[in-house]
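Per reviewer request, we include the raw input and output of the structure prediction for the construct analysed in the revised manuscript.
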Amino acid sequence: MSVSREDIEAARDDPKLANVLYHDWEAGSYDEKWSISYDERCVTYARDRFAFVAGWPDTPYPRALELGSGTGFFLLNLMQAGLAARGSVTDISPGMVSVALRNAGSLGLDVDGRVADAETIPYEDASFDLVVGHAVLHHIPEVERALREVLRVLKPGGRFVFAGEPTRYGDYVARRLSRATWWTATRVTRLPALSGWRRPQRELDESSQAAALEAVVDLHTFRPASLRRMAIAAGAVDVTVRTEELTAAWFGWPVRTFEAAVPPGKLGWDWAMFAYRTWQRLSALDRRLSTVVPAGLFYNALVSGIRPGVPDHGDT
């Protein structure tokens, strides 16, 4: 699927249409684009993100929902880590739901899925023990309304965890690093000696189109304190907001952009492991820096909260 300039212009005034167009377009290549996998690397990443903001439960949640699931990255890897027994994936993009269900099937996970608007979740009240999402809140026009829906479909005492949300300052820095990297990589590879590192012009044009539409679907950035207030206003209790990735984001965004600017597979396994291990080391450094650096300067925000009420442990 390709998206025309006319599609992009029409989507500028309709963020939900923009999200459908962009994510349907990206569904088939999304996992490759963002180096998403369903092995130990991403299982560990998902488990660590959840535990960082909410701890890790003693027993699995009986039933979990992922909001804005994309290809299923967060929930499927959390299920592989033992967080939940059954899962449901939802996304406004039919293409993403299709890929998520295919991924779940290949992993042998008990998962169903529905195309759904996050502001009107198509499940009954108190259907889930856990709701999760990764890099989804910043795509939703009315975030507080979506959080109210999350609390509605949670059982009393049920928890939500959203990770991967861009902070205002972190997003500002990441976008400028990415633009500078893209500009440099696409110009340097015009040199005859580096022509083998240049992607075909058609693919570069499609990446530029995707970037233009991505700018339309990214609706919000968050200040940690305002994200916490929003969750409380929606009705959540025991709300926690944490941030992560400072130097890791300064490294990670140029790396991702460079990878997108060169032919797929050109960099090889050694590069992938170098990038991943460097990101791990910088993330560990950032954890230490978090004791002295203001939370708002980090790139990623994570938020967790609970639906008020006493859980019924006999209800599955």
